[in-house]
Amino acid sequence: MSGFWGNKLKISIFGESHGKGIGITVDGLESGFSVDFDEVQREMERRAPGRNSMSTARKEGDKVEIMSGYFNEKTTGTPLCGVIFNQDTKSKDYTTQQILMRPGHADYPGHLRYNGFNDYRGGGHFSGRITAPIVFAGAICKQLLQAKGIEVVSHIKAIGEVEDKQIDYCSIDIEEFKKAQSKEMAVLDDEALLKMKDKILEVKQQEDSIGGVIECAIIGVPGGVGNPFFDSVESTIAHLAFSVPAVKAIEFGKGFDITKLTGSKANDEYYYEGDVVKTNTNNNGGITGGITNGMPIIFRVGIKPTPSIYKEQDTINISTKTNDKLKIVGRHDPCIVQRAVPVIEAIAAIGIYDLIK
Amino acid sequence: MSGFWGNKLKISIFGESHGKGIGITVDGLESGFSVDFDEVQREMERRAPGRNSMSTARKEGDKVEIMSGYFNEKTTGTPLCGVIFNQDTKSKDYTTQQILMRPGHADYPGHLRYNGFNDYRGGGHFSGRITAPIVFAGAICKQLLQAKGIEVVSHIKAIGEVEDKQIDYCSIDIEEFKKAQSKEMAVLDDEALLKMKDKILEVKQQEDSIGGVIECAIIGVPGGVGNPFFDSVESTIAHLAFSVPAVKAIEFGKGFDITKLTGSKANDEYYYEGDVVKTNTNNNGGITGGITNGMPIIFRVGIKPTPSIYKEQDTINISTKTNDKLKIVGRHDPCIVQRAVPVIEAIAAIGIYDLIK
Amino acid sequence: MSGFWGNKLKISIFGESHGKGIGITVDGLESGFSVDFDEVQREMERRAPGRNSMSTARKEGDKVEIMSGYFNEKTTGTPLCGVIFNQDTKSKDYTTQQILMRPGHADYPGHLRYNGFNDYRGGGHFSGRITAPIVFAGAICKQLLQAKGIEVVSHIKAIGEVEDKQIDYCSIDIEEFKKAQSKEMAVLDDEALLKMKDKILEVKQQEDSIGGVIECAIIGVPGGVGNPFFDSVESTIAHLAFSVPAVKAIEFGKGFDITKLTGSKANDEYYYEGDVVKTNTNNNGGITGGITNGMPIIFRVGIKPTPSIYKEQDTINISTKTNDKLKIVGRHDPCIVQRAVPVIEAIAAIGIYDLIK
Amino acid sequence: MSGFWGNKLKISIFGESHGKGIGITVDGLESGFSVDFDEVQREMERRAPGRNSMSTARKEGDKVEIMSGYFNEKTTGTPLCGVIFNQDTKSKDYTTQQILMRPGHADYPGHLRYNGFNDYRGGGHFSGRITAPIVFAGAICKQLLQAKGIEVVSHIKAIGEVEDKQIDYCSIDIEEFKKAQSKEMAVLDDEALLKMKDKILEVKQQEDSIGGVIECAIIGVPGGVGNPFFDSVESTIAHLAFSVPAVKAIEFGKGFDITKLTGSKANDEYYYEGDVVKTNTNNNGGITGGITNGMPIIFRVGIKPTPSIYKEQDTINISTKTNDKLKIVGRHDPCIVQRAVPVIEAIAAIGIYDLIK
């Protein structure tokens, strides 16, 4: 099933890029919690299009209307539904999108999956725009987690080959991350930021696009959260991460690089710091056996380059059943990574809230 | 919940390394299917310990007894349960395992998660041994998929820094993979195999261990399988992959490397080969928008080095609440990657069967 | 979890009686189906308040706005969300509802469940009004089932002690049921209808209320639908039926009366009518072993009298923690049974569509 | 899916009447709980066949072997699996069961559901014998609930037309119920018991069978347990109850009879008894709006007469596709109600434990 997820917290999403609206229903929230909706809106704006030269010109306020589940300025505990009505949907001829399958997009698989009946306008239900409701739900979960002393932060680890600074997995500087949030892009190192921006503007000028890596840290989760096997912390976060369009890879702790270490280097050795159990390295990213050990949870996701590019591409015409050429017009991002940052934080918060509840 | 998974196919696992037995219940199998149990047993043996100098000396036949769901040599369609009774459980003093937390293992997180009541003998329910029932269920799913023209194959892509040959994502040579299965390790290139073996024996001699990467290909899945968002093909396979102990990373298609490409290079352009839609590259690993496009599904998982090593390690003693030293004795693998190969194929088969059913 | 249900079809509801809006997201619908929304609206109106002297004076058009999942006059197959914006929500002082717990209502249990944070205005999320979105989803499922030759019909079997005619479980006259739908109440026998109406107006005059029984038949479901044990047809329908406020009982076929028969009378003996397998009685209501046998599915639900009555009642004041008196003012139905008829048909359609998909 | 159930507690069953064994895996139990297995075994024996003149002569010790999840005499918190190996499976010719469909049984629906591949010997997976593992899991849940001050008790409310005494829904005499458990049948009134026994022996002599009603009370559940709509207490218990073979009806509180009352009689008025909230009647069976109010939960299930009778019956021969006659031979119960009592208590305990966890 595509749009439903969850165990103790449940979410269901709906909507298409150019339909009437998009939204999410969240069930299982605790009652009596005061949401800071200004903060929620700030999270929405981190994802929203049209913020600077590096993203699409489409402008959407992404203002969420609360339909239910919030009363007297507190969560009721019954289903909370938020809806975003689509505004800036340019009316135009979508015939091309119906018959010329954009490479790297869901057009062709979606066409097969739904026998040609899916909404093809702007990607329809497959649009990255549907991540806006996920950011909304995630923003609420982030606040719920903060009330329990848990922070979710992230930075752009890489744009193409350009890398941000290496963070210390054992000791996350939350303030440094928060400071980065207010920059043009969520990058810790300012020099790296400039290089990344250059890279994005370079590919933009080439009518092309570029991908990148987002690194996320969840700090303050106590040890003992998660499960062996099918609902491991990694399974939960990875399941949600791969729900985000354009994510093609995920790794925890040192990830693929841990495979090159010997066990004596890879194992995170425990020690007591006073009463608190810590590990002297955090190659496992705070999780062993699918369960947290109290150290920061660290993971990275790989985001592919925006498939929408202005350059002409080869593709198929499913109407004529012939090979064809495609030049995508319209508004799109040369790089989606910076806008995906709050989405990745959102799914991290949703996943951890479900596990911890 | 730890031990239950699935939508249209459901599985539930149970068991501990040194308990009475381990097993799996599989519900939602089609009725009337003749399982080749000799083939199932061969899959079990690919995972079983004690096969050569590179794995633990523990010997388990891993003979599965069918409790239900199979009648007159065909699946009934009602729950099929397979049990493996534990045999070679050396009785010994497990006190050390109770108080000295093995680094890299689930001992400490498991202790927290279950308030100290989990079975600590040999890792208990966290033992890699519990993957045997998963291989059993996966072996049945593989046969069910084969009957639909779908093959699941894999090879060891890397042990430490040693890499196997690069495969062609667009055109998988199934026979080459099957041939590799009968080798000492599932490696395509014989020279790479020797180097990998050398590496494993080297770390073994150093009382250490090493990790690696398994690359899996699923061929023959028609386009249109999977879902947008929460039950994407990637979400389904990743969820199951991270249920396998020691997996710390997964990537589809070019994975993390796709983030370094420009969109014009990353996008897999479509073309008609006769009536069949293909892509000229397969950087997305056969999946866009969470749904298959008909090309081979390609993914890689990173397996960390076996955390059990003979070398002395620092750790904590949770009884005395002091820092301590630990030298792990007993039998264990210097590298678990080769034994994880059939497990990864099993979860791939289980995931795809659930999606395709 | 309160608001989520389903396996192959999934639904999630949201909303409160006096909030901004109520709605439902439906996932797993087949793509390419043209919904007759006029027919959907007729179903909505069967449930809507304010239709005649026997129901509440509250008027709601219950006009559903389609947010997503419907494109070019066909289902897309992706989540379909329908929203009803609340209109006729009289602004008034709800203080009484907050502190004086209405007997027979969810006020007090809801207060406990949500620690006092639930929306108490008009019952909030517990309002029978939230069944409107269920009728909407059910109306679509009914049309999907009709396209497969399956009809869902029902009648008011009883209001208080007044009973409608006995139907033939083996042979349902669909036309007779459809004719009854257009009557003031869905009663097959006109004399019974008049007596029922008299009964309702009598209790209304007494500032009291009355309950009743709805009998539902599902015709055309082939044999072999359903499951043994946990997802039996009865389990599925009963689960959904008890989701409907005021339902306190359900029985299939002869129900409780079958317990008084001997096996030789109770057993439905099979016979071939040409190639078709039938039973000469249908005491089991078309289901044995949790699975359909091809005969009409028959079930009855018992609906309790509307708990909202004008008569003064004893209750508690949770603010002063003292015993108190309550006289409920405002608009309410002396009998809810006639408005529950389309709700019961809706859950029957939803349940069967999920099982049959 | 047939054999899997649960949210916070999950169970999966497997097995056939004449297969190797039957069993259940239970996941989500709290860790560190000492199960009284003698008490569990007593529950198993309450259900077991062959206890007296009123039940089948088949003898099964129904001894459960614990495969996992129990260590050092405490639950580990990881999946607990219990297996019962079948012993007294008379080897005989089952050809008749394959082609002559027993009326009232699952033979024919099961044949359709599984395309003829289901195990037909003794009903296979549809056998009432598969309720033994459910009693096992329920017995553990009962003990877990007892530790929280919650008792699950029940009595045979009726065999055919013979009724046991009316209980006081507001005040359950647990000792009276426990005393009844040690009687030949769980009946409160001794005279009623004798009449019921006479009735059963009478139908037995007539080569026939009879049904009955079981009434169950759950005492000590605090108010505020359950959910509005889809996971109401009634939905949860009803779902599980209809998983039990032969159950055809369920009602809560006054059930169908509440439909005949006026609201002023039906509503359970609240009052404070000291600090404790009570109701002066309990017509709603302790549940309003799907959530408990702190009063005893009361429900009744209707059990149909055993479909296996010695009397000759009309039926179909699916091999010749002709109408035929059937005389069932072998061992079977003239009344299953008394053996179903612990099964109903088990599902009540499982359902409440899941909701309360």
Protein described:
Chains A, B, C, D: This is Chorismate synthase. 4 copies of one chain form a homotetramer. With 357 residues, the first copy, chain A, is of the alpha+beta class. Chain A has one domain: Chorismate synthase, AroC fold, CATH 3.60.150. Helix content of chain A is 27%, strand content 24%. The first copy, chain A, is built from 9 helices and 18 strands. Chain A has a 5-stranded antiparallel β-sheet, with helices on one face. The first copy, chain A, has a 5-stranded antiparallel β-sheet with strand order 9-8-10-16-11. In chain A, strand 12 (270-273) and strand 13 form a beta hairpin. The longest helix of chain A is centred in the C-terminal third of the chain and has 20 residues, at 337-356. The two termini of chain A are 24 Å apart. The model of chain A has no long low-confidence stretch (mean pLDDT 94). The interface between C and D is large, with 107 and 107 residues.
Core attributes:
homotetramer, 357 residues, alpha+beta, Chorismate synthase, AroC fold, five-stranded antiparallel β-sheet, 27% helix, Chorismate synthase (chains A, B, C, D)
